[in-house]
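Two folds, back to back.
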Amino acid sequence: MAIEIDTLAKNLTSFAEGLGELLGQNCEIALFNVEDSKHKLVYLVNSQVTDRKYDEDMNQHELEALDRAKAQSGYSIFSYTDKDGRRLKTAIFILKDKDSENTSIMIISFDITDFLLAKKTLEFLCLIDGKAENDINANNDNDYKNVGFLMEKIISDVLESYGKPVSYLSKEDKVKIVSMLKDKGVFLIKGSVEYIADKLCVSRYTIYNYLEEIRLE
């Protein structure tokens, strides 16, 4: 996106401030300048969304999206789960001057965790005899030939049925989920511990500790 960078700089911070006020506390706007191939954070609105600090670079998800934006049309929209288990929907924009000598980057991160929880509640209210009206759980039998797909599907179904976003789960909740997955034989599948740890936002050693607690009980 080619623009007059000096003209933009005069209005960019007020735009970020207004956007943050419009979208509320769930929306963070971060402005970076690119200097000597480094990203310098120069303005930040609603920093509590990602707990971003001024001396920190973009996170790994943002850096990967930035590479995609450079290869595409100057922007990228993506989502990821942060270290606290909250789901973020994010847009990254590259702003260059006409000579491509100066570059600014805007990152808009929206915490959609509460909306996903509301979505689950609404889906539950729409169930008829335990099934969604459009039978959204219909599956292609051929997909189940893939063990990895089966593992991911079982884990996804258990997390969905639990009815809470990962960021809302207590340790007791996570132990119960691990116990449910153990009963379903998921831990017999190679790579399951690492995958579950990632989904629950804990380390694989924590999963092993949960399994030991379950065994002792």
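---
second:
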Amino acid sequence: MPTIAIDQDSFTSMLVRMAHAHDQGTLSHATRMTTLGKLLGQGLDLELAEIDIIGLGALLHDVGKNAVPDAILLKPGRLDEAERRIVARHTASGYELLRDCRHPALDLAAQVALYHHECFDGSGYPEGLTGQAIPRHARMVAIADVYDALRSERPYKAGFSHAETIAIITKGDGRTSPQQFDPDGLQALQRQDRAIQALYVEAQRVGLPPA
């Protein structure tokens, strides 16, 4: 039987559609995350190949949510503690989905899926890693993820403005602190201030939910 070759872009597109089939809001989140991740990589003056890896990891960071029950994933209000523990498993689920794809870029995306909720100060999950022990791609996606979550509307909260979001991430607000984030990544976030703000202005113009 002949070998069937599937290119990375086609496979990635399939994974993204599968992961977000039940929630177009999370698909928009993944799309914005791709650009956000790349902007942070550019703010660090990384090589183009590494910037692309961050973008791919950002796009696929939540593929593990496909394993989360719809009743929890689409719940309109805040999650209780048991539900939050179930959602937290999406990091391991995403890693298991991506790690055996036998492609170097997807191997790195698997690390992003696993570690994008780790915090620089060790307060994250699933392993409580600190500092440089967290892969750099995941550290950048972590910043992008929090930025987008703060900007986005939810049934239980309004979206914050760009200025409010930057202040929360870089100064803290009781829920987050700057110690949770890669210091170089925070500098990249501030360097890319105008480009990031423009990204969300454009998203609002074309009607992409919900930021």
